């Protein structure tokens, strides 16, 4: 296989990498790399991988929080765009994204055709998913008030995680198409770590990865 036929999948922790590996099976088409937690680690790790190899697609995959009424635990959210929802400034009128400051954009569009194809194939396999904005944050949301502010800032946002925008920034730098998927482990809102259903989310991630092989 030509080297640039390969696909790079980046996760934040080993448990996510293992779930994806179980799903995609024994194939050389995919490199699955753990790049750490947070946007900075994701950007650095993804850029390092892209500098050392040739890939036709980057996928950031892992577990994430789901916004109420949008994505339930155990379902999947595929990003229509990645939004760095805490990249900006506080003003007297509230938080504004970096876009309004004139220093670039907090939004990166994903490869929409691929996101849509993956969602369609998941649906055919009886797996619930939606395509919607995913917010990238530095601090996991822990109150209903912050969850509500994020929903206002990014209408239609369905999931929250900590790496998408960073990995997307690296992919953009290397002119490589990018998508993000999150398997929902918890609700975005008041923090209760005991309520996180990590096992369910990892099973959903594995199932989504199995379908991915037919999509890309
Ligand atoms: O403890 C474990 O077994 C375990 C297995 C897989 C993943 C984890 C993590 O804690 C991964 C951290 C990762 O999770 C994302 N995440 C999940 N829920 C949220 C959320 O509500 N808000 C923001 N991020 C969330 C995040 O991308 C972290 O990188 C543990």
Summarize the structure.
The chain has 216 residues and is α/β, with parallel strands linked by helices. It contains six helices and ten strands; from the N terminus they run βαβαβββββαβαβαβα.
3D structure, described in words:
It comes from Paenibacillus phyllosphaerae. It catalyses: futalosine + H2O = dehypoxanthine futalosine + hypoxanthine. One of its GO terms (cellular component) is cytosol. With 216 residues, the chain is α/β, with parallel strands linked by helices. The chain has a single domain, classed as Nucleoside phosphorylase domain (Rossmann fold). 35% of the residues lie in helices and 28% in strands. A 5-stranded mixed beta barrel has the order 3-9-8-4-10, surrounded by 4 helices. A two-stranded antiparallel sheet has the order 5-6. α4 links the parallel β8 and β9. α1 packs across α6 and α3 packs across α6. The chain is globular and about 55 Å long. It starts with 6 loop residues before the first strand and ends with a helix. The model has no long low-confidence stretch (mean pLDDT 97). Bound molecules: the ligand O=C(O)c1cccc(C(=O)CC[C@H]2O[C@@H](n3cnc4c(=O)[nH]cnc43)[C@H](O)[C@@H]2O)c1. The ligand O=C(O)c1cccc(C(=O)CC[C@H]2O[C@@H](n3cnc4c(=O)[nH]cnc43)[C@H](O)[C@@H]2O)c1 binds next to α1, β3, β9 and β10.
């Amino acid at each position: 296989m030509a080297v640039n036929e390969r696909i790079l999948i980046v996760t934040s922790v080993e448990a996510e990498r293992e779930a994806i590996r179980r799903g995609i099976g024994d194939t050389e088409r995919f490199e699955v790399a753990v790049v750490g937690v947070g946007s900075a680690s994701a950007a650095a790790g993804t850029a390092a991988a892209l500098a050392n190899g040739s890939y036709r697609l980057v996928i950031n995959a892992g577990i994430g929080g789901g916004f109420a009424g949008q994505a339930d635990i155990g379902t999947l959210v595929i990003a229509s765009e990645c939004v760095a929802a805490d990249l900006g400034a506080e003003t007297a009128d509230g938080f504004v994204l970096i876009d309004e400051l004139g220093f670039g954009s907090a939004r990166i569009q994903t490869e929409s055709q691929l996101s849509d194809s993956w969602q369609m194939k998941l649906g055919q396999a009886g797996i619930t998913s939606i395509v919607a904005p995913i917010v990238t944050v530095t601090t996991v949301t822990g109150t209903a008030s912050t969850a509500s502010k994020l929903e206002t800032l990014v209408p239609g946002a369905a999931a929250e995680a900590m790496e998408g925008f960073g990995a997307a920034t690296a992919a953009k730098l290397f002119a490589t198409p990018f998508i993000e998927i999150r398997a929902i482990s918890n609700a975005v809102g008041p923090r209760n770590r005991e309520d996180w259903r990590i096992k369910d989310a990892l099973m959903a991630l594995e199932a989504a990865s199995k379908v991915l092989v037919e999509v890309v």
